[in-house]
Amino acid sequence: MMIILILIFNFELPPLFSNSFTETFAAGKPMLVLPVSGDHLDNAQRIEEKGYGLRLPPHDFTEEQLTQAVKKLLTDQELISKARVAGERIRAARSKVRAAERIELLVK
């Protein structure tokens, strides 16, 4: 179900690990997060508070809440724009290339 939503809709439902957040940010997509434990709750709250996505309680949401969240992620231009700008900024930083170049310099 998650993969289908990612492919059909223009947003992501990442697991709540930092790499997934980074990949979603780099893709420039708003997130719908369903925190389950540990730091997931803090991460999900930050995503929502900073305007990069929405969160739902993973075991206690209604069909209507999910429908409304998906609609908002697809139509809320502020959310979409903020995620897009973050993605552009991350991609423009070329951090992977710069890190590889620095590592190569250290190895030589």
* Structural class designation: mainly alpha
Assigned CATH class = Alpha Beta
Mean pLDDT figure: 79
For the biggest β-sheet, the strand order reads 1-2
Main sheet properties: 2 strands, parallel
**Number of DSSP helices?**
6
Counting DSSP E segments of at least 2 residues, the number of strands comes to 2
Shape: elongated
- The CATH architecture assignment turns out to be 3-Layer(aba) Sandwich
CATH topology: Rossmann fold
Provide the low-confidence segments as ranges. Answer: 1-10
End-to-end gap: 47 Å
Number of domains: 1
Portion in beta strands: 5-15%
Helix content: 55-70%
Helix and strand element order:
HHEHEHHH
CATH homologous superfamily classification: Glycogen Phosphorylase B
| Oligomeric organization of the protein chains | single chain
Radius of gyration: 16 Å
Features:
mainly alpha; disordered N terminus; 108 residues; two-stranded parallel ribbon; elongated
Describe the structure.
This protein is mostly helical. It has a single domain, classed as Glycogen Phosphorylase B (Rossmann fold, 3-Layer(aba) Sandwich). Helices cover 65% and strands 6% of the residues. It has six helices and two strands; from the N terminus they run ααβαβααα. It has helices at residues 2-8, 18-27, 40-49, 63-75, 77-93, 95-107; strands spanning 31-33, 53-55. It has a two-stranded parallel sheet. The N and C termini lie far apart (47 Å).
